[in-house]
Design brief:
CATH architecture of the largest domain in chain B: Orthogonal Bundle
CATH architecture of the largest domain in chain A: Orthogonal Bundle
Structural class of chain B: mainly alpha
CATH superfamily of the largest domain in chain A: MetI-like
Number of domains of chain A: 2
Number of helices of chain B: 14
Radius of gyration of chain A: 24 Å
Order of helices and strands of chain A: HHHHEHHHHHHHHH
Strand content of chain A: under 5%
Structural class of chain A: mainly alpha
Radius of gyration of chain B: 26 Å
Oligomer: heterodimer
Number of strands of chain B: 3
Largest interface: A-B, 84 and 89 residues
Order of helices and strands of chain B: EHEEHHHHHHHHHHHHH
CATH class of the largest domain in chain A: Mainly Alpha
CATH class of the largest domain in chain B: Mainly Alpha
Chain lengths: 284, 308
């Protein structure tokens, strides 16, 4: 193997611009990846470690997953997070698609200002949005004693507010490749405005909608800062719960719960990428 | 693109819901905070809007001014470390074999998709006194002592290295905050740099090398100036979220690594001084807008490298 590689290198000498084959750059790259991945890999590996001290490897176990599953507070927070993310994703995708269509299709007075305002939730610091939401819900006297799914309402509203402009960006990127002739053809053949949307535009948009929706889902699932300011003692989300656990100590249960969340996010990201690839290869 | 009057019904339909949402659940909350920042605290929950500027003036008291300068300093240092790491990484990806490029880019972005809290937590487990870095160092220390013993210089080894390993205090200080911020924000830097370097015309580099400049000279005199719009863009795109960070200084920092976001949180939670917290939030927002305006000004007409 090594011999073959040496031979290949001899036959293909690195050109002066082959920066990817210069060892100082390769070393930097390797160090960067170790820096980025080692903590996460260690976290995942040690969630299976049979030792509370969590430093030395003492054999494989699933007991911390069982413990995490038996932790009612953690499970409740997990269910809350998924519920919030689910509702927020649906609303964000619809609102995002509307913004995308609006900005893609129409000229109207004040459009640059409108676009700028729409980008505000993307650029302003999370902490500012968090405290604004806290003040807003306190001011309008948002009831805090609602029954289960409804008491998550304020968190869901906050999540939609910061997610849908992101979804709009992703969906608009997909729209940019739309062939307007299809729409004209449909109109010529007698389709009305609604039918054009239902039969032409929305089917074309589907991969963009999925990608935008998955982005909204991950954003919602990941958010800590804004949720931290809108959640109450009864409405704890997964990141808020982990935050309160981390403040006390580093425990294998947190590792196990984190691993589950990482796997969920990775699977969703993979699905999103796969959808995007499939849609772009179909179009080429 | 059509004028909205041609299809007014479609226009109003797609305009209404998002605009309503943004106005009610984003603009109004922000406006509320803005109004509060000119108010005075009366009692536990009452805020009277008196149009006072006292909250803004208070933000310039030495205690808070120091936190602002410290936050700026931490953010600038972290951003430039991101640049120093990100530039070689982006360069390597740009010149990597074609089929490796998307994989390498993906590897840079992937951590970005994992939860910020989990990544910060993972870093705590690595850096703490009984964490993996110290554990590794202790092992090295013991091996070194053993080596000294082996060559019969045990006492010298103990004198040099100490009999017991003293774990390094890597958490709860400014260094930990900077490491954490770099760890979290590196992808923000690599992406615009990658976009800028990818567009770079390679014949300039070839010309420079042909004419006798070394690799380092070519890098600093050709690559860096040509990629400047992307570098500026990357610096500012990284700087903005770093400056507003809450979680990293909160979990990794010590008592003296408080950043702006942490004092804002304190005003809204434990200190319960909303008007002052609101004023601080708006000062942070003005800094953000300032940075964005600077980016627009510095990269005007050149393409900031965000489009990719």
């Amino acid at each position: 193997m090594f011999k073959m590689w040496r031979k290949w290198r001899k036959e293909h000498p690195a050109g002066p611009l082959d920066y990817a084959r210069k060892w100082p750059l390769q070393l930097t790259m390797l160090a960067t990846f170790v820096f980025l991945y080692a903590p996460i890999v260690i976290l995942i590996a040690f969630s299976f470690n049979d030792s509370r001290r969590n430093i030395v490897w003492r054999g494989f176990t699933l007991k911390y997953y069982e413990k995490a599953m038996a932790n009612d507070g953690l499970i409740e927070a997990f269910v809350n997070s998924l519920t919030i993310a689910f509702v927020s994703t649906i609303v964000s995708t619809i609102l995002g698609a509307m913004v995308a269509i609006l900005l893609w299709r129409f000229r109207f007075p004040g459009k640059p200002a409108y676009e700028g305002t729409m980008a505000l939730p993307i650029v302003i610091p999370e902490i500012c949005m968090g405290v604004a939401m806290l003040a807003f819900f306190a001011r309008i006297g948002w009831p805090t004693d609602l029954i289960w799914p409804l008491n998550l309402g304020n968190i869901i509203i906050a999540h939609i507010s910061f997610s849908f402009p992101f979804a709009a960006v992703v969906i608009r990127a997909r729209l940019a490749g739309f062939n307007r002739e299809l729409e004209e053809a449909a109109r010529d053949l007698g389709a009305n405005e609604w039918e054009v949307y239902r039969d032409i535009l929305i089917p074309y948009l589907r991969p963009g909608l999925v990608a935008g929706g998955l982005l909204a889902f991950t954003l919602s699932l990941d958010d800590f800062v804004i949720t931290f300011f809108t959640s109450g003692p009864e409405t704890v989300t997964f990141p808020v719960k982990v935050y309160s656990m981390v403040r006390f100590s580093v425990t294998p249960e947190v590792n196990a719960a984190s691993t589950v969340l990482i796997v969920i996010t990775l699977v969703l990201t993979a699905v999103a990428l796969w959808m995007q690839n499939r849609s772009s290869s179909k179009n080429d | 693109m059509e004028h909205w009057r041609r299809y007014p019904r479609v226009f109003w339909t797609v305009l209404s819901a998002p605009t309503f949402w943004l106005a009610v659940f984003f603009i109004i909350p922000l406006t509320l905070i803005w109004v509060y920042s000119f108010g005075e605290k009366r009692g536990i929950v009452d805020i009277e809007i008196t149009g006072t500027l006292a909250n803004y003036i208070r933000a310039f008291e030495p205690v808070y001014l120091q936190i602002f300068t410290k936050s700026l300093w931490i953010a600038i240092v972290s951003t430039f470390i991101c640049l120093a790491v990100g530039l070689p990484v982006a360069l390597t990806i740009v010149y990597a074999p074609k089929r490796w490029k998307p994989v390498l880019l993906m590897l840079v972005i992937l951590p970005f998709w994992t939860n910020l809290l989990i990544r910060t937590y993972a870093l705590i487990a690595v850096l703490r006194t009984r964490g993996y870095v110290n554990f590794g160092l202790e092992w090295l220390h013991d091996q070194a002592l053993w080596l000294f013993q082996l060559v019969g210089m045990g006492p010298i080894g103990i004198q040099l290295l100490g009999e017991r390993f003293e774990p390094l205090e890597m958490l709860y200080n400014n260094g930990a905050v900077i490491i954490g911020l770099v760890y979290v924000h590196l992808p923000f830097m690599v992406l615009p740099l990658y976009a800028a370097l990818e567009r770079l015309d390679r014949s300039y580099l070839e010309a420079s090398l042909d004419l006798g400049a070394g690799q380092l000279r070519t890098f600093f005199l050709i690559i860096v100036p040509l990629a400047m719009p992307g570098i500026v863009s990357g610096l500012i795109i990284t700087f903005i979220p770093v400056l507003g960070s809450f979680l990293t200084p909160d979990l990794l920092g010590g008592p003296d690594s408080t950043m702006i976001a942490n004092i804002i949180e304190r005003q809204f939670k434990s200190a319960n001084d909303w008007p002052f917290g609101a004023a601080l939030s708006f000062l942070l927002m003005y800094l953000t807008f300032g940075a964005l305006a600077l980016r627009a000004y510095l990269t005007r007409g050149k393409g900031g490298g965000l489009e990719a």
